[in-house]
Amino acid sequence: MKHTILLLFACLALCTTGRATTLADSVRGQQKFVQLVTNDLCERLQAEQQRKPFTNISAADAKSLLVSLMQTSLLAHAEEMNALLTTGKGGNTRKVGEQLGTEVVTALVSQCPAGQQLMVGAVRDGLGSKLAVTEAEKPVLQVITRDICHRLDTENAKSPLAARPAAERKEAFSTAMQGSILANMEAVANFYGFKELQNNKTMEQAGQKIVLLMLDECPVYLLQFSLDEYLKGK
């Protein structure tokens, strides 16, 4: 997921290469531009998904498609982009690209089902190639996964998670996951055994498998959290 987002940022930066540009702290029309690009990109992704569903798309193909369509969407709104960007001394093109890229990706995650499916496909390919949920453990982990998603739905109903600060989203995500695991600890212990509960590798893999299942149950929360983690590490 991090690599997909990084390539999106790189694409945005490359599309403004050759300029010493900087985005003002408050630019009239910035949100309108982000929404224009998001809508355009979402329509293109929907068309691609209808042509070939993203269900089994590889991470490499997802990255390539995202970068290609982003470039096309930006070119389609080159005039608006030129009006938005201003020339300034010491301008950092990469920062401009990353700032806009962050907003576009955030909008894609929350607004565009096709964009969500593309990213889900990339994450599933990356994780699924390393581990798989066995038929024996799926019922146990699926109960936990659905409980986590239900807790996040409940929290989201109180106040939209997408509108909250990243720190609050992380707390909500962690609370939901920990609460669900504790509530289902007996079933987890019965399946894996108490000895394996002390095995960090086993529990780490179980957590990754829950992530895989969340991609089917409530992908938006997971993608938003992944984006938060990427931005935090920058």
Automatic annotation (TrEMBL):
Keywords: Signal
Region forming the signal peptide: 1-20
Superkingdom as given in the UniProt entry: Bacteria
Protein name listed in UniProt: DUF4197 domain-containing protein
Organism: Hymenobacter perfusus
Lineage, broadest ranks: Bacteria, Pseudomonadati, Bacteroidota, Cytophagia, Cytophagales
